Amino acid sequence: MNGCPAAGMRVALQRLDGAQVVTLKTFALNADGRNDGGALLDAQSMAVGRYRLVFSVAPYFLALGVKLSEPAFIDDVLLDFGIADAGGRYHVPLLVSPWAYSTYRGS
To answer: pLDDT tens digits, residue range 33-57?
Structure first.
């Protein structure tokens, strides 16, 4: 919406194991729209499986002073993805506004 990285947006990384959801990490995006600590999973933690990123979209836009409906049209974006190659590189960007979002596997 603003054409800039979502500095300060809260994000959670979760591992999905059947019906069980385990939160691995929570963090706020930095000025570049990334995790300050670099990769979310190090080589020892990277495993084949299902994962979820939860982006707290509505609180981010509210903090910027954007007027949202109540309830917000988009509150959290849950982005489920799979890691098929534990040795691979996975970059999962989110392009978001209060009314729409898209994602892709980045490089």
So the answer is: 999 989 999 888 999 999 999 999 9
Amino acid type, 93 = P
Please give the structure tokens belonging to residue 96.
């978001």
Distance CA 4, CA 37 (A): 20
Give the three-state DSSP class for 94.
strand
CATH architecture designation of domain 10-103: Sandwich (2.60)
Q: For residue 15, give the 3-state DSSP assignment.
A: strand
Q: Which residues pair with 52 in a beta bridge?
A: 14, 80
Where do we find the tokens 């959670």?
Answer: 12
The candidate with the shortest Cα–Cα distance to 53, out of 19, 84, 9, 18, is 9
pLDDT of residue 10: 98
pLDDT in tens, 57-98: 999 999 999 999 999 999 999 999 999 999 999 999 999 999
